[in-house]
């Protein structure tokens, strides 16, 4: 995450230097004004530290951390007087909609899991791939391209639940680290979300910025897409980037 954010920031800085009109300077502010402006993020920062610290400290699981984060964010908004009845109703409707969609996906995953267990397809596929006289990195590259293309058509969660169970055993059989592969998989799936011709997230942006042509949105996204490719290349060349924190906290 920090690597990708750094690449994004570097790209924005370089583009702003080359074309200053892309990022016009704002009004100058004093150090005191900058410090005062940080007061609005103290609560959310404390909530972030609480959740991350609790998960890494083994106090609660990531799922429980998500629930604690939701309750904490609601209480924080309530204290600041930003909660309205309309907002609560809208949040409940959206939560219900997302939950129902996930349950339908999980039902499909259950059927798929039964099929995969009965046919042993993942293990047959793993044996077939490991038997090929091809460099494992060529196979890995093909999987990455497949995920990017699939990301154009599906959201991340259905891809993880429906596709990974089939491919994951083959990747492990090829000798790739599962954590490292998981990080790259999520990143490449996210790349697919902003990739033409569909790009699910691009349509979400277009629905908000209705006065901006789709071509301009894709053109603006392209530099960020290149940064994500650079991030994947760095993770492939230096796997320690993805494995450092897991090994530091979990051994």
Report on this model:
The protein is mainly α and 251 residues long. It has two domains: 31-83; 120-251, no CATH class. The protein has 13 helices and no strands. Helix 1 (2-18) packs across helix 12, helix 3 (39-56) packs antiparallel against helix 4 (62-79) and helix 10 (178-192) runs antiparallel to helix 12. The protein starts with a helix and ends with a helix. One of its GO terms (molecular function) is transmembrane transporter activity. The chain crosses the membrane at residues 40-60, 67-83, 103-125, 137-161, 167-187, 194-209, 221-245. Residues 1-241 form the TRAP C4-dicarboxylate transport system permease DctM subunit domain.
Give the SSE map.
Blueprint: H1 2-18, H2 31-37, H3 39-56, H4 62-79, H5 85-119, H6 121-130, H7 136-151, H8 156-162, H9 164-173, H10 178-192, H11 200-208, H12 214-237, H13 240-250
Helix pairs in contact: 1-12, 3-4, 5-8, 6-9, 7-10, 10-12
